[in-house]
Design a protein that fits this description.
By secondary structure, the protein is α/β, with parallel strands linked by helices. Helices cover 33% and strands 23% of the residues. The protein is built from 21 helices and 33 strands. The relative contact order is 0.12. Bound molecules: adenosine-5'-monophosphate-propyl ester. Adenosine-5'-monophosphate-propyl ester is lined by residues 297, 343-344, 419-422, 444-449, 472, 535-536, 548, 551, 557, 562. One of its GO terms (biological process) is acetyl-CoA biosynthetic process from acetate.
């Protein structure tokens, strides 16, 4: 079993897609860039890591890294005690059992995430800006101080409690990126409820699926949202979802716009109700391992999984990685443009920045609205010091030309971060040379919904160290990376490739899949025993620098959004005229990966193909959302199969990628002529 799984994985073409985008061009380059700060590799334990001031053997980042791996107990417990505020100290740093997928951090400890993100900053930083809300309407930003945010959190916390929400209850949040959304997440944390944010780009059906899986009694939404100047009827979508979710007892509606929307008997006008509530909301103390939130993400099979994160471990991990991956100093303005519906929004819009007492941006719009200069005009107007975005937006923006960037003053920028997909070479160069004027470090960060926070990143406080373009490079402290081959054997040395795994627990790791621990265990801890299996492939270069080669399973990464091929196939398979389908990814200039669907129709159907094409697209939009729409739907009389009946997805990927000469031997297929049919049809569609 193991060797087959890994063998398939390592030869998976998704891994090759990314390799062909950037790795081959990188491998023969020897140049690199230096971090723009100082000249030596020494860390200052007095400013960067004062917790280790008394340990004279820690002089460099490498020393610190080594120490974090050799003595994780001491490393993490000192950080936990100094960076978080506890109402009761913990007794052990970490307990772990890989064979059961059970992990516990800082057990015995008691704390509250909202206290750590707000209350403890109020005395010194109460009048400083916590949130900058960059509204969709250009030039209409709003500032929210820590005091103001604290009041909102208190009011919403009281509103939730008074409406019947208790500690441990799940609250589904389907909101645009707004101070109300952040305050609702923190209000949940304050009263011990578990938030489950659903990206507002997912359809009503997708929302209903997530509400039902989580058995959420409470939904928080908005009357409408506005994105790129277009109104989206959010409340209508929630009404449709709630009609399929009998567990829902109440819907809180925030008025983002003036528009009246029909209010039913479950609905509460949140904007109005908040006026009545007191801003002082009692704190419900949490144990370290109590769940802070859950967030659905796609896997290679089945329905989306509700990844759960703990209170103490997650909070500490986002706090520490935020500070050190971006070299963030309190007072700086951090601009992560990701939506709160994704893990990036949880960790680096909310929990990382606010637990550090930082100033964080809420970007409600799109990079192209009103024109491709939006990011840079915003950087100039708000004087942002950091920007953190997805490579897909860079690839899109660089096509619009440099003048949209150069028009605006970007001298406030210090670090340029990215996440979600490999940063291809062209985008790296453009980010570094044009956006950053060769002055700012590029911080390529690798991590996942499941890892909670950044695991691989160049570490800019590593003064004077090199940055290699196109790879996240270095494991963060406490992250023990290893590569494994198709036999499940560790691959050692440099310039080697394998399945990327993490050998040691870290505080930010997911604790389970909601109500399905078995799936958690199988997905992450059984392919290779005794390690966390990421599902990504990686190349380890000289000096132990890591480059990600892409997913090894059937998970797609479209514009940095994670989608399961099986989810899209399931929707199309439900159509009465469809016999079977296969969805694969192919390299896409802007999206990184595009979606390609092969569809086999049943005999004797009456509907015309172009109508079917439209019906399938409508179904995908309805069941999942516009983000899962395929670039191409190709109708075929059959799919290439082995004699034993297995669909040859490898061949489907090659055809979708125009790599007709890499199909290999097709003579062993049960119907080799299907391949010719598919190739010809594909060429017609181009
Ligand atoms: O394949 C990797 C890719 O995104 C996947 C995780 O997706 P998600 O859970 O949605 O989280 C995205 C934001 C943290 C990974 O398995 N990925 C993420 N960062 C990078 C990346 N691929 C290459 N380079 C990265 N820096």
């Amino acid at each position: 079993g193991l060797s087959r799984v890994l063998g398939n994985c390592l030869h998976h073409e998704n891994a090759r897609i990314h390799r062909s985008i950037n790795a081959s061009s990188l491998l023969n380059r020897t140049w690199s860039y230096r971090f723009h700060k100082g000249r030596s590799n020494n860390i200052s334990t007095s400013t960067d890591y004062p917790e280790f001031r008394d340990l004279p053997h820690i002089k460099t980042h490498n020393d610190l890294y080594k120490f974090s791996i050799e003595d994780p107990e001491l490393f993490w417990s000192r950080l936990a005690r100094s960076r978080l505020t506890w109402s009761k100290d913990f007794s052990t740093a970490c307990k772990s059992d890989f064979s059961k997928g059970k992990f516990g951090w800082f057990e015995g400890g008691v704390l509250n995430a909202s206290v750590n993100c707000i209350d403890r900053h109020l005395e010194k930083r109460g009048d400083e800006i916590a949130l900058i809300w960059e509204r969709d309407e250009p030039g209409t930003h709003r500032f929210y101080t820590y005091k103001k945010l604290s009041e909102m959190v208190g009011k919403i916390g009281n509103l939730l409690t008074n409406s019947g929400v208790k500690a441990g209850d799940r609250v589904a949040i389907y909101l645009p990126k707004s101070p109300t959304a952040i305050a609702t997440m923190l209000a949940c944390a304050r009263i011990g409820a578990i938030h489950s944010v659903v990206f507002a780009g997912f359809s009503a059906d997708a929302l209903a699926g997530r509400i039902n899986d989580a058995q959420a009694e409470t939904v928080v939404t908005a009357n409408q949202t506005i994105r790129g100047g277009k109104l989206i009827e959010l409340k209508k979508m929630v009404d449709a979802a709630v009609s399929k979710s009998p567990c829902v007892k109440r819907v809180l509606v925030y008025y983002r716009t003036e528009a009246k929307v029909p209010m039913g008997k479950l609905d509460i006008d949140m904007t109005k109700a908040m006026v009545q509530e007191s801003p002082n909301c009692p704190v419900v103390e949490r144990n370290s391992e109590d769940t802070l939130f859950m967030l659905y993400t796609s896997g290679s099979t089945g329905s989306p999984k509700g990844i759960t994160h703990s209170t103490a471990g997650y909070l500490l991990y986002t706090n520490v990685t935020f500070k050190h991956a971006f070299d963030y100093n309190v007072g700086e303005k951090f601009g992560c443009v990701a939506d709160i519906g994704w893990i990036t929004g949880h960790s680096y819009v909310l929990y990382g920045p606010l637990s550090n007492g930082g100033t964080t941006l809420l970007f409600e719009s799109t990079p192209l609205y009103p024109d491709p200069g939006r990011y840079w005009e915003m950087v100039e107007r708000l004087k942002l010091n950091h920007i953190y975005l997805a490579p897909t937006s860079l690839r899109m923006l660089l096509k619009s030309g440099d003048e949209y960037v150069k028009k605006y003053d970007r001298s406030s920028l210090r670090k340029l971060g990215c996440v979600g997909e490999p940063l291809n070479h062209e985008a790296w160069e453009w980010y570094y040379n044009v956006v950053g004027e060769r002055r700012c470090d590029i911080i390529d960060t690798w991590w996942q919904t499941e890892t909670g926070g950044i695991c691989i990143s160049p570490r800019p406080s590593e003064i004077g160290a090199d940055i290699q373009p196109g790879m996240p490079m270095r494991p963060m402290p406490g992250i023990d990376l290893a590569l494994f081959d198709s036999q499940g054997k560790e691959v050692k040395g440099e310039d080697v490739e394998g399945a990327l795994c993490i050998r040691r627990p870290w505080p930010g790791m997911a604790r389970t899949i909601y109500r399905d621990h078995d799936r958690f265990l199988k997905t992450y801890f059984q392919t290779v025993p005794d390690v966390y299996y990421t599902g990504d492939g990686a190349h380890r270069h000289k000096e132990g620098h890591y480059q990600i080669t892409g997913r090894m399973d059937d998970v797609l990464n479209v514009s940095g959004h994670r989608l399961g091929t099986a989810e899209i196939e399931d929707v199309m398979d439900d159509h009465p005229d469809v016999a079977e389908t296969a969805v694969v990814g192919f390299p896409h200039d802007i999206k990184g990966e595009g979606i390609y669907a092969y569809v086999v129709l049943k005999d004797g159907r009456k509907t015309k193909k172009n109508e079917l094409d439209q019906q399938l697209r409508n179904a995908i939009k309805k069941k999942i959302g516009g983000l899962a729409l395929p670039e191409v739907i190709l109708f075929t009389p059959g799919l290439p199969r082995t004699r034993s009946g297995k669909i040859m997805r490898r061949i489907l990927r090659k055809v979708a990628s125009n790599k007709f000469d890499e199909l290999g031997d097709t003579s062993t297929l049960s119907e080799p002529e299907i391949v010719d049919f598919i190739i010809n049809k594909h060429k017609e569609l181009l």
